[in-house]
Design a protein that fits this description.
2 domains, Aspartate Aminotransferase, domain 1, 4-stranded mixed beta sheet, alpha/beta, Aspartate Aminotransferase, domain 2, 401 residues
């Protein structure tokens, strides 16, 4: 069998349009394709590969658990799930953990819990969910409706009801929307897919205060910002705003599919036996790998290293921009970085991604106007410098085209 990009078009549903590059091997922050071409990975599988490719701690955990126990179902619990949950509880505001397989599933659980909590505590009238334009919370029908991007949610028939949106960082608009009928507010503590947009301190605190005033649960979607990405274990810790429910996935497993919803005992009790579940959620293989990833990231050395590496990233990006003037702003937190294209290149962010691939660099976009970088949290300085040298060649090729 010939396995190439053409085979994709024959056998795969056409909802993706992947590159012609097919990676076959990775180590650290470098990846090699079928032809043996080397790429430096500034994409990290969209903020998933927090420890790069084939990190020894993750490989070791996978091999060890793979020879013990893969799956049980939630008719029984298992040791890796309990250990990971205890570590997550100890490191965060939370007291209870629910495991799923993805960010969308974690968000689905969070939204269902919020609705059930409000129903039990206040009655059926308290069902409104507020979220933010350009937000992204997953692709299930509930989460994609809560996400504030019509391009993803329209065209599938009637949507789940009582969901409203306002602009991120517009506290006045939010205050006008929220009421005692609001059961939950879902927000990213830094918008990822929406363009790498940080909240102002006033906005984050204002949303928290208004949720408290109206007895609405504040849900932080930390699927992309969590597990060290911003330089804190979770981004809420840098904002000094504590949510009622937090969701985490992507980097939680370092590349192995796992998600989690964490919350307080008081709120968690409303997901009684039988109200929600997942066949694979919390399986021992995923939890063993995630425990290794969590242990490795949640150290002062790695978290402080994120801040130092981010400073170098921003310095080198600024030097490139001083030469070519293609970006109007470089923004983000930690190693979740967005370079906003200038007016001349508006709508053309993907051209920089494509040119980067041609020069041996993997990157991302966040919408049509932002080039996004989410590399490994432990990427060596030499790889940052080499990757940026390749990105400069990519920028030069776009400018001269």
């Amino acid at each position: 069998m010939t396995v190439n990009r053409e085979l994709f078009d024959h056998v795969m549903v056409p909802n993706y349009a992947p590159s012609s590059v097919i990676p076959v091997r990775g180590e650290g922050s470098r990846v090699w394709d079928q032809q043996g071409r080397e790429f430096i990975d500034f994409a990290g599988g969209i903020a998933v590969n927090c420890l790069g490719h084939c990190h020894p701690a993750l490989v070791g955990a996978l091999k060890e658990q793979g020879e013990k126990l893969w799956h049980l179902s939630n008719v029984m619990t298992n040791e890796p799930a309990l250990r990971l949950a205890k570590k997550m509880v100890d490191a965060t505001f939370a007291e209870k953990v629910y495991f799923a397989n993805s960010g969308a599933e974690a968000n689905e659980a969070a939204l269902k819990l919020a609705r059930r909590f409000a129903l039990d505590q206040f009655g059926a009238e308290k069902s409104q969910i507020i979220a933010f334009n350009k937000g992204f919370h997953g692709r299930t029908f509930f989460t994609v409706t809560v996400g504030g991007q019509a391009a993803y949610s329209d065209g599938f028939g009637p949507k789940p009801g009582d969901i409203v949106h306002c602009d991120y960082n517009d506290l006045a608009a939010f205050e006008a929307l929220i009421s005692d009928k609001t059961c939950a507010v879902m927000m990213e503590p830094l918008q990822g897919e929406g363009g790498i947009v940080s909240p102002t301190d006033e906005f984050a605190q204002g949303v928290r205060d208004l949720c408290t005033k109206h007895n609405a649960l504040l849900i932080f979607d930390e699927v992309q910002t969590g597990v060290g990405r911003t330089g804190n274990l979770y981004a809420y810790q840098g904002l000094n705003v504590v949510p009622d429910i937090l969701t985490t996935a992507k980097a939680l497993g370092g590349g192995f599919p796992i998600g989690a919803m964490i919350t307080t005992t008081e709120i968690a009790q409303h997901l009684k036996v039988g109200t929600h579940g997942s066949t694979y959620g919390g399986n021992p293989l995923a939890c063993a790998v995630a425990e290794a990833a969590f242990d490795t990231v949640n150290t002062p050395e790695v978290l402080a290293g994120v801040t130092a590496k981010a400073a170098l990233f921003n310095q080198l990006l600024t030097e490139i921009n001083n030469k070519y003037h293609v970006f109007s702003e470089i923004r983000g937190q930690g190693l979740l970085i967005g370079a906003v294209v200038s007016e001349q290149y508006k709508g053309r962010a993907k051209e920089f991604l494509v040119a980067g691939t041609e020069h041996g660099l993997m990157s991302l976009v966040a919408g049509a106007d932002v080039v996004r970088f989410t590399p490994s949290l432990v990427i060596p300085e030499a790889d940052i410098r080499e990757g940026m040298a390749r990105f400069e060649k990519a920028v030069a090729s776009v400018v001269s085209a």
